[in-house]
Amino acid sequence: MNVKHVDSDILIVGGGMAGCGAAYEARFWGKDLKIVIAEKAHIDRSGAVAQGLSAINTYLGYEEGENKVEDFVNYAKGDLMGLVREDINYDVGRHVDPSVRLMEEWGLPIIKDEKTGKYVREGRWQILIHGESYKPIVAEAGRKAASEVVNRAVITHLLMDKNDPNRVAGAIGFDGRDGSLLVFKAKAVVLAAGGGTHIFRPRSVGEGWGRTWYSPWSSGSAYGLEIQAGAKMTQMEVRLIPTRFKDGYGPVGAWFLYLKAYATNRLGERYENNREKLRPLVGDYADAKPMPTCLRNHLMIEELKEGRGPIIMHTDKVLDTPEKVEAGWEDFLDMTISQAGLWASQNHDPATRGYEIMPTEPYIMGSHAVNAGAWVSGPEDVAPKEYQWGYNHMTTVTGLFAAGDAAGGAAHKFSSGSFAEGRIAGKSAVRFVRDHELHVPAFDTATVDKYGEQIFQPLENYKVGRNYITQGTVSPYYLYPSQGLKRLEKIMDEYAGGWTSYYMTNADLLNRGLELLTMLREDLEYLGAEDLHQLTRAWELVHRVWTAEAVVRHTLAREETRWPGYYYRSDFPKVDDKNWKLFLVSRRDPVSGIWTMEKVKYLPMAKPTVPVAPA
Ligand code: SFD
Ligand code: AMP
Question: Exposed, middle or buried by CB within 10 Å (0-12, 13-18, 19+), for 454?
Fold first, then answer.
């Protein structure tokens, strides 16, 4: 086996939005440090922004007097039914605008009003971009800041320090192109490996199976790595169900907010403002303005359940000028080309006919309108002391930092906020390295050998097991990654509140789901991979199963329905502020494998002492 060793001061796992932000900022404060990015794909086109975006969804415009940072905190809090880490949302909010200015400097075309010179708003928080090349532009900054980018580095495990089992010392994985074992040693690690799709069964079937809204290559690795290392996790129960154009998964933000389209049920009724229908479930949250994303979903789901589907977005009522037609098509061509392709293949003209929208399958994320991820230390000035243990954005594992989808607590970060949060984590990691200058990270060679064997086991399983196949792909001796993935998706869909049950679950279903997940995990030992591509799929599945288990355990522990429209507990169908306006924080002990679940009091942020950064 070929083994490559890469030593560094700071290792960044995942070169997406947060990873590039971390590299950029770590270089600014740590000019002399060795900063390495380990990226599963190729940094120029990796992560959720690989295919581009059409908007930057978080830009406050505080210098222009458009929004205050406090407004952003309140917006995120309202949207999440009262549960965000205000301290982290505040920190991201005060750093996001300068980050967007940087991106513009690097060449990102942000659409401006010709008269005022101001960015054109899609909505209160969003600005429009010509964003097909968003990722290569941001990646260039990340690449130039890093001492080395190791592309095709599929990280499978974090490595812990041999003298301290709760301190990170590096990471291990393999090169997806040449099959080498990759062993990274680092004084600090910033985890920025993105969110999780294909945890639940997608709506797409057959040859469309790989099509999801969030990128299919978002493999839940951030959560898988964090959980295995024993980091505390939060908000894993809150799944994102975005409304999307049917089958192509085209986003709706530009249509609702910028083009001002509206949706109706089959009777032509606008169902979206029926707040009275919400009141019995959520009480006064029914009056929240703007209406929380989950509640908007809930109203649509009710229409579908009661037989008043399909829900149609009236694109035809708003595309009344050539400029608007162009804006509508560009929205998809910039970020969800499949929707434009689908419309073209169906001879669909959105200017003359509306199109169906649907709630998607659930995604696990920390950067969109939900906030799953690691429980991280907050910023020194605004975090309540219970949420602060030294270094901003350090997880509960010493030396391990998290940002973007990987970091829990703050919501509505999106691409720009994830980049800004990466910067926060990168700066903090430099401080950590400086404060521990004499520390020499070290791991057991026996652990490296053990992982080295485990990592390539699926190739071995395939080599041996294929001899027993007489026909087709079903082997008595191994499981293909795609077979395991289908099994995972079916379990999560049917037991943990997927789309086929209209997102409904309960304790009995969740407990049974947990049993089935345990059996699935036992079988992961028999994963078979015919090549390095399938080996990547195999490890992505392992990470997805860890993510799924955390989702089920969190959902089971929270005995209320706080986010109707994202999921429902039929045994506890209402919001219960008295008992549940708190964070659930879980930890899996890496030695015993035992999970513990803590209820952590909701605490508002303290008054800021560090001023908002100048743009
Ligand atoms: O409208 C490993 N997002 C949108 N954000 C916006 O600001 N505007 C929009 O218009 C957005 N829309 C949207 C969005 C995403 C997608 C897919 C679509 C539309 C179709 C959300 C943002 O993209 C998202 O919030 C950020 O990208 C999150 O950043 P980050 O850094 O947390 O995740 P990443 O960018 O996916 O990067 C993760 C990286 O990790 C790598 N990786 N590397 C090594 N080893 C492993 N095991 C790894 N596993 C993963 C990945 O390859 C990747 O590079 S709209 O619909 O909302
Ligand atoms: P989307 O394209 O659905 O991901 O949404 C992009 C942005 O617009 C996100 O910040 C959403 O929260 C917001 N958004 C989308 N639809 C609506 C709506 N109907 N009302 C308010 N905000 C919305």
Answer: middle
